[in-house]
Amino acid sequence: MFRQDDSDDDGDSSELDRSHYTPIPTQPPYAPSEGEGTLDSPVSDRPPSVVWYPDSSASQKRRSWRRYWRPLARKRYWSSLVHLLMVNFPFALAAWVYLFVFTLTGTTLLMALPLGALLCFIDLLGARAFSRAELFLQSRFHGPLPYPLPDPPQPIFTRLRAPMPADAESGADSEVFGSRPRSGHVYERSFYKNTYAMFTDPTSYRALFYFLVIKPAITLLFGISLLVAVPVGFALVVPAPAVLRTARRLGVWQAGVAVEGLCLSV
Questions:
Q1: How many CB atoms lie within 10 A of CB 14?
Q2: CA pair distance 245, 241, nearest whole angstrom
Q3: pLDDT tens profile 5-30
Q4: In DSSP terms, which residues pair with 21 in a beta bridge?
Q5: How many CB atoms lie within 10 A of CB 137?
Q6: What are phi and psi for residue 81, nearest 5 degrees?
Q7: What kind and span of H or E run contains 256?
Q8: CA–CA separation, 118 vs 124, rounded Å?
Q9: Model-level pTM?
Q10: Within this chain, do residues 56 and 80 fall inside the same structural domain, yes or no?
Q11: d(CA 161, CA 176)
């Protein structure tokens, strides 16, 4: 029988080379007892049964080293590292500055109702747009995500609703903004209803909390840690695969936090 290695963290199993195995007898060579013939005995002509066993620990070490260095040739590890080092911080900074400025000025000027309401409208609209972009980036660089994304995606402003009899007469089921509605739903064309739905939708305020509180802390912590660990790990060469594995795990974890904070109900 053959013993195969367990699959590694990528889900790939390494095939064993039969040349690394040496047959050994399962029983000692047949030794005739006294009174039995040694040359013409039919029993002594039987070949002993054999099993295959690993020749030495050298092959196991080689396979272990191949599994250890495997992240260097895998795109998913590099994509996670690129996102956490080069994309995540500029995106988080842009989202934080935009939402902080409009949240502060909008809530401060609410006493001047038209101007404050307009700034709050722009604030929530930007929060929902950043939320859509964040989910796209997380699924692009860290997929598959721990949680499924909503389908259809959450609307930025124009929402979907169930069709009404009046829609067939007015042709509201036609194309809107260059796309077709899904699942028999139609796009809401009323600006007032879309605005009211955006202000009363809890996902708008979850996006504000995520981009103003949660994402800055995660981005700073992971970004600074990787800025220190990545140059050292790749300069020493040997720790490089471990650094890539760590970046992949951190990326998948923070992607799960993003989906929880932006899509899932608490």
A1: 16
A2: 6
A3: 444 455 444 444 444 444 544 455 54
A4: 54
A5: 16
A6: -65, -40
A7: helix 240-262
A8: 10
A9: 0.70
A10: no
A11: 13
CA 186/CA 183 separation, integer angstroms: 9
Within 13 A of 138's CA, how many CA atoms are on the CB side?
Answer: 28
**Would you say how long the chain is, in residues?**
266
Q: Say if CB 223 and CB 144 are below 8 A apart.
A: no
The domain tally of the chain equals: 2
Is residue 145 located within the same domain as residue 203?
Answer: yes
Same domain, 157 and 248: yes
Q: What is the extent of the structural domain holding 97?
A: 74-161+189-262
**Structure-token pair, residue 28:** 């000692």
Q: 105 pLDDT exceeds 50? A: yes
Separation of alpha carbons 247 and 176, rounded Å = 41
**Residue type at 140?**
R
* Preceding peptide of 42 cis, ω within 30°: no
| Cβ-based neighbour number of residue 251 at 10 Å | 24
